[in-house]
Amino acid sequence: MLKLSTNYLVNEVIILKVLIIGNFEGGNKGDDLVLDSLITMIKKYNQNMNEFIIPGLSTEHLLYIKKICSNAKIIIPSTSRRHFALRFLSLKTIYYSFKANIIITSAGILFDRKLFNPRYSFICTLYPILLLAKTFNKKCKVLGVCVDVITTEKGFKKKVLQNTIKLHDEIILRNPNVVNFFDEINYKHYKVAADCVFGLKKPEIKKRSSNTIALNITETLVVSNAKKRNEFLYALNNYIKKNMEKYNFVFFSTNKNDTEFIKRYIKSLDFKNNGVEFEIFDATEHSFEEINVFLSQLSLLIGMRMHSLILSLLNVIPIIGIVYDKKVSGLMMQCKLENFCFEFNELNYENLDLSINEIIKNSESIKNHIYETVNKKYIKVNCEVKKIFENL
C-alpha cells in the first residue's frame, strides 16, 4: 500500500509593534488626519503591523482608528502635561519604546520654531525617548514620515535638533525647502514627498457651480502683533460686508480653539441685527467623508491652517493661502500657487478681491492644475511610504 505523507507549511504570524509619536490629543483635525493617513497606508502596505501604541490618543479618535484597523490592537499610554517641555516624556511612552519594533515620528514632531517652546515642545521630549530606545532596543527602527523642520535655533539647541534627526533610520520629508538643512547636517537618509494627508484620497474634479466661499482663520492670531492682526481682520470684514449679495460666506474650522475664535470674530461683524447668520463647519466634529462633501460644494477657500488648505486641495477646490507660518507658504510654493498666497499682514481688500476674481474667472484651468499637482502628491506619498513599510 502506498502511504501518502502530507506536510503542511505553517506561516509564522509576525506581529510588529508600532509606536507612533505625535500630537493626537484631540481638538485638531489636521493632526487627526495625519494619524489616519499613517495607519491607513501602514495597513495597506504591511499587514504585519498589527499593534499600534499611540501616546495620548483621544478617546473620540480611538473609535475612528478602530474602524480603520478593526483587527489591530491599540494601546494608549498616558502622556505627561505640556508644561516644562514634557509633552511625550512619560514613563509609559519610554517603556513602550523599548518594546516597539518600529517608532514613527509624524509630521508635526520635528516642526519646532524654538527648542524650548511651551506651545510646541516636541524636540526636547522626543530626543531622550529616541536616544533611550536606540540605546536599549537595538532592533528598533525609527522612521520619520512626512516630517517638516522649521527652526531658527543655533548652537546647543541646533545640536539637539540635529541629533534628534540623526536618531532616525529614515525620514520622508513633506517640504522640499528643508532639504538644505538636512544636507547641512550631513543626514543622507531622506526622501522628499509631501504631507501624508495627501495620501488619503485621490483627487477628483466635480463639475459643480457654487458661489460659496469658505473662510478659515486661526486663533494663533491672538499672539500676533495687534496692529497687524487688526488690519488683517479689518480687510476680511470689509470684503465680507461689501460682497454679501455676491457670495455666500461660511467658516471652516479644523481646530477647536479656532472655532471659539471664529465665534468671537463673527460677533464682531455685528450682522445679527440684519438677520444674517454665518455657518461654522467644525471639521473636528465630522468624519473625513463628511468634510469632503462640505468642501466639494465650495467655489474656493481662504485659509490659514495648512490642513484646511490641503483638505480643499484634495477636493480640487481653489485656495487662497494666508501665511501665519512658513509651513503655509511652503505648501503654496510646492503646489505652484504662490500667486494666491499672502502674508496675513499684507492682505487688503484690493489684493483679496483681485485674487478671488482671478480664481472665479479661471476656475477650470486652476482646478486642472490643482488636480494634476495633488494627484502627483498622492502617488508620491504612497510610493515613498510603501518603500519604507512593505519590506519591514
From TrEMBL:
Keyword Cell inner membrane part of the UniProt annotation: no
Protein name from the UniProt record: Polysaccharide pyruvyl transferase CsaB
Chain ranges of the Polysaccharide pyruvyl transferase domain: 28-325
Listed GO MF terms: transferase activity
Keyword Nucleus included in the entry's annotation: no
Segments crossing the lipid bilayer: 306-324
Keywords: Membrane, Transferase, Transmembrane, Transmembrane helix
Pfam families noted in UniProt: PS_pyruv_trans (PF04230)
